């Protein structure tokens, strides 16, 4: 597809893509960021687009994939293993004088 025609098609689907991005993100700023990232990825991969195929579908697929990848990254970054329960045992002296935690309350 010629570059000028590609850019016209890209401009022509911006409003629809923004609505789709908002449905995915439920946040206006994130929707704008997603639209921008999608547009840049499409421009970078213009040579991979096959002319006379569903341009809008191609763009929606790019946006959906970017959204999924971003979501997975957020989930991965927020996932951690809480090992603070194990830290309690490290701070206890070997012989605390108490056989159970109930004995500690008798003081």
Explain what this protein looks like in three dimensions.
- By secondary structure, the protein is mostly helical.
- The protein has a domain at 3-66: RNA polymerase sigma factor, region 2, helix turn helix motif (Rna Polymerase Sigma Factor, Chain: A).
- Helix content is 70%, strand content 0%.
- It is built from 6 helices and no strands.
- The chain is elongated, with a radius of gyration of 27 Å.
- 10% of the residues are buried.
Topology of this protein?
Blueprint: H1 3-12, H2 14-25, H3 28-44, H4 55-78, H5 84-91, H6 101-104
Helix pairs in contact: 2-3, 2-4, 3-4
CATH topology of the domain at 3-66: Rna Polymerase Sigma Factor, Chain: A
Largest pleated sheet = none
Radius of gyration: 27 Å
User: How would the global form be characterised?
Assistant: elongated
Sheet-strand content, in percent, reads: under 5%
- DSSP helix fraction: over 70%
- The CATH superfamily of the domain at 3-66 turns out to be RNA polymerase sigma factor, region 2, helix turn helix motif
Low-confidence stretches: none
CATH class of the domain at 3-66: Mainly Alpha
* Residue-averaged pLDDT: 86
Number of helices: 6
Structure, briefly:
By secondary structure, the chain is mainly alpha-helical. The protein has helices spanning 3-12, 14-25, 28-44, 55-78, 84-91, 101-104. The chain contains six helices and no strands.
